[in-house]
Amino acid sequence: MEVTAVTKFVRIAPRKARNLVRAIQGLPVPQALLIAEFSERKAARCIGKTLKSAVANAENNAHLSADTLRVKEAVIEEGPAFKRFWPRARGMVSPIRKRTSHIRITLTDQPAA
């Protein structure tokens, strides 16, 4: 059975969060939680929260044990970008894009193939 958790509009650029998501993909949940907990990246906190939410969904809604779960899929998608401007010389401006992310984590109780 598959269980999903989604966190939307996280204020971090998707490029900076994707390498941590690639590291936890396919791992058992306890091991993925350890990686998210001890990583020093800003994205680790958001990914850890989403992973814990997916585990809670599995335990409460699907009545699955957290020890038997593994991360089937973890994806960082692009959200909307805030558009800001930075002043430049001679009265001009440069655009700044403050990017956001959507984090989607899918857990499964089936063994790795």
Keywords:
three-stranded antiparallel sheet, 113 residues, 3 helices, single chain
Low-confidence stretches: none
Largest sheet features: 3 strands, antiparallel
Kindly identify the CATH topology.
Answer: Ribosomal Protein L22, Chain A
Shape: elongated
| Helix fraction bin | 25-40%
Q: Report the top-level CATH class.
A: Alpha Beta
Structural class: alpha+beta
Q: Name the strands of the widest sheet in spatial order.
A: 1-5-2
Quickly count the domains.
Answer: 1
Q: Termini separation (Å)?
A: 15 Å
Could you say what the CATH architecture is?
Answer: Alpha-Beta Complex
CATH-defined superfamily: Ribosomal protein L22/L17
Number of strands: 5
Query: Taking Cα atoms only, what radius of gyration do you get, to the nearest Å?
Result: 17 Å
Strand fraction equals 25-35%
In round numbers, the mean pLDDT is 95
- Element-level helix/strand string: EHHHEEEE
